[in-house]
Write a structure and sequence with these properties.
Oligomer: single chain
Shape: globular
Largest sheet: 11 strands, mixed
Helix content: 25-40%
CATH topology of the largest domain: UDP-N-acetylmuramoyl-L-alanine:D-glutamate ligase
Number of strands: 24
Number of domains: 3
CATH class of the largest domain: Alpha Beta
């Protein structure tokens, strides 16, 4: 497509204010230039690129770099002068324009692949992995390609599998992955949809054949994210405006409001323990080695078993079953997926050889996930009488978590170790001191250990010296591989590696003493 065709697309959407270029002749020639690429990252520019100037932190230097790398035009809310003359498409709303331009450039076609969007405060990743596993089992049965995934942990678009950088990518990346999936013959794609993606219109051009709303509680409240809970909640609810079938959890807070907002979808399917739910959950059994529950609906009444620990995962499984129900996935495929699926960094368990210590690594990082995680710890690990918790809070965002997580961890732990978790531009010591004040308010002992490895080692060391069995919770990062520190992304060990290393050292010491 040409610059002129993109200009026409933006004009048709009512987004274009005007076009600027160096001279009439140059403008005419530039408008007929073929576009070879589209990006909002100046480092990703190649010859023939249409560059998008987005973000509050955007600098003219980025556009200059894009021009040097071969950009032929740009989209922006204001005109720029560059050393290498470029055609500028000036728009009213850069976020909306980015989505519209991405959809046009990659020829987005709703329903190819069939797209599921999952939003909520907790459980998006596990639900996405559960649903993908169900769809994969079905497609394998029919000798069709593996389905796609866009998640906090990993992205797969039929052509490549990569570690995720953010929960929901920017519009150009999203549309590129969807186009790749379509070209590869991928029939289904499951994606997490964050509140930021909805607020900043990254997914505005997409149509979800199924949209899942898991739950809601206060989170991501900060000057950089959502100004208050209403802003956060409203962003989540907006997904229903672009959803065909809404799957709604009747067991979550504010379920009535969520269900009312879901009327914007073409159809609503509900799930939960409520007798009024379309898919009803009952007969929950939480054993020492397995979790099972019955699901009843107009098509079946079957018992499902989870391969992952954490009774809170029943809610995630129900959401995946509801979406699979809409798609007509066979029950056998649903059962197979739930029994076998493990999600990296979610309820990963490590036990010492003598059974005295049990370490759990989980992504729990907000109030709702902390509450459910501790509920599961008391219910499913009752033989472990002491709980030691290791976690941190991020810098510059989700400021509400500091008090909420500090209080919850303090109430239910015997000792808390506060450590690093994406301090960003803040001093780690300042974040830890603030959280520590809330932990100590509950009467719980608290130790601040900046280095995450040292914090885990100290927690395991304390557990080793304690009488009886101890549960060590390492929370907040899951499978994340980088720490955001002072404007840089620093590679860091996985939490699972840290826990395995620490318990391994305990085992080695115990064997040496026994020998």
């Amino acid at each position: 497509m040409t610059v002129r065709q993109m200009e026409e697309t933006l004009q048709q959407r009512g987004l274009l204010i005007g076009t600027c270029a160096a001279g009439e002749t140059a403008a005419g020639a530039a408008r007929n230039t073929e576009l070879a690429w589209l990006t909002c990252d100046s480092r990703d520019v190649k010859p023939g690129t249409l560059f998008i100037c987005k973000g509050a932190a955007f600098r003219a230097d980025y556009l200059e770099e894009a021009a040097r790398r071969g950009a032929v035009a740009y989209i922006s809310e204001r005109a720029y002068e560059t050393a290498v003359p470029l055609t500028g498409l000036i728009v009213t709303d850069i976020r909306r324009a980015m989505g519209a331009a991405s959809a046009r450039f990659w020829s987005y076609q709703p329903g190819t692949p069939i797209l599921t969007g999952i939003t909520g405060t907790k459980g998006k990743t596990t639900t996405a992995w559960y649903l993908k596993a169900m769809l994969d089992a079905w497609e394998a049965m029919l000798s069709r390609p593996e389905t796609g995934l866009i998640s906090t942990v990993e992205n797969y678009d039929g052509t490549s599998r990569q570690d995720a950088v953010m929960t929901t990518p920017e519009a150009p990346t999203l549309h590129e992955m969807i186009a790749n999936a379509r070209s590869a013959g991928v029939r289904y794609m499951t994606m997490e949809v964050s509140s930021q993606a909805l607020k900043y219109k990254r997914v505005r051009e997409l149509r979800f054949q199924v949209g899942i709303f898991l739950n809601i509680s206060e989170d991501h409240i900060s000057p950089k994210e959502h100004e208050n809970f209403e802003d956060y909640f409203s962003a989540k609810l907006s997904m229903f405006r672009q959803t065909e079938v809404a799957c709604v959890n009747l067991d979550c807070d504010h379920a009535d409001r969520i269900r009312k907002a879901a009327r914007k979808a073409d159809r609503i399917v509900t799930f939960g323990k409520s007798k009024h739910a379309d898919l009803r959950c009952s007969e929950i059994r939480v054993g020492s080695h397995a979790i099972s529950f019955r699901v009843s609906c107009d098509r079946f009444s079957e018992v499902f078993t989870l391969g992952m620990r954490g009774s809170f995962n029943i809610e995630n499984a129900m959401a995946a079953i509801a979406a699979a129900y809409v798609y007509g996935v066979p029950v056998a495929c649903m059962k197979q997926a739930l029994a076998s699926t493990r999600v990296p960094g979610r309820m990963e368990t490590f036990r010492s050889e003598d059974g005295k210590l049990c370490g759990i690594v989980d992504f729990a990082h907000n109030r709702l996930s902390f509450e459910k995680l501790f509920d599961a710890a008391f219910q499913e690990y009752a033989s472990y009488r002491r709980i030691l918790t290791v976690f941190g809070c991020p810098g510059g965002k989700a400021l509400n978590r500091r008090q909420e997580l500090g209080v919850i961890a303090g109430l239910f732990s015997d000792h808390v170790f506060l450590t690093m978790d994406d301090p960003g531009m803040e001093r780690q010591e300042d974040i830890a001191a603030e959280v520590c004040s809330y932990v100590e308010m509950t009467g719980c002992a608290c130790t601040c250990v900046p280095d995450r490895r040292d914090a885990v080692l100290q927690a395991v060391g304390l557990a080793a010296r304690s009488r009886g069995k101890t549960l060590i919770l390492l929370l907040g990062r899951g499978s994340e591989k980088y720490q955001q520190v002072g404007g840089r992304a620093l590679e860091s060990p996985l939490d699972s590696e840290l826990m395995e290393e620490a318990i391994g050292q305990y085992d080695a010491g115990a064997r040496e003493i026994a020998g």
